[in-house]
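Researcher: Please predict.
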Amino acid sequence: MSKDTDPSGVKIYLLPNLMTAGNLFCGFAALINILDAVVQINAGLDPAGKIHVAIWFILGACIFDLLDGRLARLGGNESVFGREFDSLADIVSFGVAPALLVWQIVLRDFDRYGWLIAFVYLACGALRLARFNSIAAQDGSSEGPKDFLGFPIPAAAGLIASLTLFMLWLDAGQKAIGPWKFALPPLMLFLSFMMFSKVNYPSFKALNWRTRHSIPKFMLIIVVLIFTAMNYEWMPAMIFIAYLLYGLARPLISQTWRREIEDETEEDEEPAADNRGI
């Protein structure tokens, strides 16, 4: 993959950082649509359309975040610049945007307490990103740990966005999300705790373009992808919930099953990493 280097010697790899820029753009676009939703509410209009667009931009940012890490690892293009750029994009797309989204939907009804809940989520997300970068810096490389310490902030944002999408689907035709919206504040607080917790989550870094699968596993992945596309209103939420619960249940699962689920060999269990997807 092509790269550029500035006079200070900082390595900037083109394709992975283009994906990170796409992540940042999606976060910015989500914020714009959330603010447009506020304007529509003040004008007495239905904001559901703008909220929908904001949700899709947050989910799009999750895809870009996944791609930048895969491209960096595929080409051996991990760098300190990429890690820092990725973290800055993540705090916008997966910190500020979800916090403002939930504030717009429900937290604004709680006045100063709503501000506090949104800020706790944002602060814990920022602390988690800072902790990841600090661990990588202590290792003296641009790489990070094989497993994620704490629930990844992209997954937290994806869970919030996909659950909101599910709620909008349940209340299609309504001018506002129904009473299920009151589940979002405690969820944000729980995710805030999980992001800065010491629960280990698999990064699935062993799963890449070169990973070999048996035919049954390959077919299962294809079926899940097609089923998700056909049921996009609720299936993404189920995937993010499954990942959240898997991390909690992971210590109870045997090493053999864990290697099978996470597509790892015994050699993959040694510390390895990339600088993305935190």
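Model: Residues 3-266 form a domain with the Four Helix Bundle (Hemerythrin (Met), subunit A) fold (CATH 1.20.120.1760).
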